[in-house]
Amino acid sequence: MQPEHQVFSSVDRLGLVCGQLLEPAELELSNIDQALGSLMSSRLDYADIYFQFTRFETWTVEDGIVKDGLHSVDHGVGVRAVSGEKTGFAYSDELNKSALTDAVEAARGIVRDKGDGRYKVATQTPTREFYPAVDPLTSLEDAEKVALLTDLDQQVRAMDERIIQVIGSLAGVYEAVLVQTSDGVLGVDVRPLVRLNVSVIMENNGRREQGYAGGGGRGSFSLFTETDRPSTIAKEAVRQAALNLEAIPAPAGNMPVVLGSGWPGILLHEAIGHGLEGDFNRKETSAFSGRIGERVASVECTVVDDGTLEGRRGSLTIDDEGTPTQCTTLIEGGVLRSYMHDKLNARLMKTCSTGNGRRESFAYPPMPRMTNTYMLPGEYDPQEIIESVDKGIYAPNFGGGQVDITSGKFVFSASEAYLIENGKTTAPVKGVMLIGSGPEVLARISMIGSDLELDPGVGVCGKDGQSVPVGVGQPTLRVDSLTVGGTES
Amino acid sequence: MDVNKVQQSLKNTAQEAVEHARKLGVEQAEAGVSYDEGFSVTVRLGELESIERQRDRGLAVTVYTKGRKGSASTTECSSVAVEETVRKAISIANFTSEDDYAGLAEPELMARELPDLDLYHPWAIGIVEAEALALRAEAAALGMDDRIKNSEGASVSTGKGVHVYANTHGFCEGYPTSSHSLSCGVIAEKDNSLERDYWVTVARAYQELDEPEKVGEEAASRTLRRLGARQISTCSVPVVFPAELARGLFGHLVAAIKGTSQYRKASFLLDAKGEQIFSDFIGIEEDPFIPRAMGSTAFDNEGVATQHRHLVEKGVLNGYVLSSYSARRLGMQTTGNSGGVHNLIVRSNAGSLDSLLKQCPEVFLVGELLGQGVNTVTGDYSRGAAGFWVEEGEIAYPVHEVTIAGNLREIFKGIRAVGSDVDLRGSIRCGSVLVEGLTVAGA
């Protein structure tokens, strides 16, 4: 899927971003140079200044009409000063010279020693671009956005007479960032992001159940208008709700679990992804600390974090410290190869940033975060994997998850699951929580399917109060034993 | 900041927005404006780790024109930005559909009396002093036991701000608040296995924060007691939620009885008003007027006067949690809960956490809940957990990698005791809770 857009070159992007971020504030690139010089007059190892402009819009259909729309604008500058393991951080949502100076003073207060004021002259290096520099909000007329939602609502209602409630929402984000760093990087990026969600409530014989589906990515609303994705999402939400109406209570206890392809990759995000973020490993608070080169998963497992996938929700051309993103092999043939780093943790661990320095916005300091995390395919036919289980659970769809990175314990909640009896999927079971220990579960992955899929573009990852969009993916796989949190012993 | 000046300036901005909307011909408009500032200082392993300064402004405008609604928000509060935001809200309203239920709350419901709820206690503390407090907390934690091997750090944060709401009924009011916290998290090790836990104290006035040493010691002892955890076999057993987790159960109650869940039929307590949903002894009141409490306010997000009420009496649900919109949808009147509940107080019928643990021969005491796993439509509840196996009132051993599952309707009915060890750190105030009828899944 590759919608057509007008694509700007890097130089044009710099002009575009400066025009949006700096000109209205009567700032020039030379003012950022001066601010960096002023920061480095304290003895720092590193400093950066991050300008951001964000416009967000969402429309909601409920009761068959679009009764609400919200538009929001946010901009500001974040200033960070780093010395050893220390970070000073301040931001301003006012954009002008005095606010910038004020933030610089506040941030550099982290160290009292004087520096020489020197920093590396910033240059913009050409980077590959993984999404178009478009503004999704203006890619479609408001009337067309409303029509998309009301059409979708009618489509959904016509699918099943048991539907009593439909809520759909269409959201778009336009984000322009400019980051200049003391190690000589001038990075600019224009980041579009769109998303469409549908939730359905169905009622039958006094029982009510919900179904939910969504999708999106980095691009314009043509992701929805020029494809059949809206109806795919609608059908999926209806299918989920109908299935839940039939679901029986889930079993409780340890058993083999077959996870479907795509969004169930949230397993990797929770079970190992967070535990491989550089900050936890530098501080040695992760269950994976000090284990590079060790076997941490079964030999079939190869897991990567890849910020370079075209148009994906978790993709970035550059991270929020101006480092180009890359495809980092985290686990290769079961052996732990790399952590994910931002600049601060890479420097302290004497390695290089892997382009994983991300922040929710200018108002938060960056830290190591995932982009798109997925497992490479194996050789099994997915059907063969299900057939290998006598008694267990097949879970092709999930809600959210959470991990305690220190103990390695993680959970993720199945929103669609079936009993497997004698190698066949039988009754659907109610939404259920699965819990395991990251390092142990990875060692219990015994079969990996050939059907690698990425999620539809709905992931949001939270860490230390900061949310960022991410992607996950995996082929169908078998975990020999996981604890299933049902009610039936 | 001069709080009176800030409040006046926010009021001017809010009124400017509302007036501008009226000038552009909308029937109704409302504006919320806020300003917050503060900082946090984090130390780790005896060294300063970070200083973060926060300063945020925000303006949110909603307009209603011919029954159509549009909203816009911005972080810039100049006159130009205010006008642009209003125009954007109106342009959105040009495309939304007419909704008979949309609009401001009725003018006669606006709050007239605004008691001083004592919510503003700025903390005149500098970075160096904050660092010293955080260091004391962490030192207490690290010094408690040799098995405490590492630290996630200790933080002191302080914040204050002003929030103002205005609408075309002529309502324009605001008030300042403050909130301070001190937290500490540490890691313990035994036999190559690591456990972490933390503790935090939160208050409107810094004088009410716990001493740094107490926070550090609590963080350390909570971490230590998790060492050596094992899985237990799947069983049905009485479960005790300590106060800090028990309030989550009542949070699920609020989610199920709030107006949007009711009119969308997205609740396991649909139309449950008047129904007995708890045992006889359960009473829950809402008191928005407790001085210094985290959930106190004299008016809600629509300017509606909040009210002291008995939400649950003798186990019977007396009402819902409504905004003016959801109230109109349900043919009721708003309960002044646009934006949420304002101090829910769950009556206790028992003593300390220890006394609850002694009520049954075997108990699973929850230490931590992981993941969402709560379905408000069906009430199905399935969460990851760690905790403790308790025999005859004494902790026998720590437990990890289990789930607890049931249905909230049965969980609510199965509440046998509510302790008097009330957690005051949030807007739901309750003690520890003993529940029967949950499945703990493990090996």
3D architecture notes:
- The complex is a heterodimer of chains A (489) and B (443).
- Chain A has two domains: 237 residues, PmbA/TldD superfamily (PmbA/TldD fold), CATH 3.30.2290; 234 residues, no CATH class.
- Chain A has eleven helices and 23 strands.
- In chain A, α2 packs parallel to α3.
- The N terminus of chain A is likely disordered.
- Chain B has two domains: 222 residues, 2-Layer Sandwich (PmbA/TldD fold), CATH 3.30.2290; 215 residues, no CATH class.
- Chain B is 23% helix and 37% strand.
- Chain B has nine helices and 17 strands.
- In chain B, a hairpin with a 2-residue loop joins β13 and β14.
- β3 of chain A pairs parallel with β2 of chain B, so a sheet runs across the interface.
Quickly describe the structure.
The complex is a heterodimer of chains A (489) and B (443). Helices cover 21% and strands 40% of the residues of chain A.
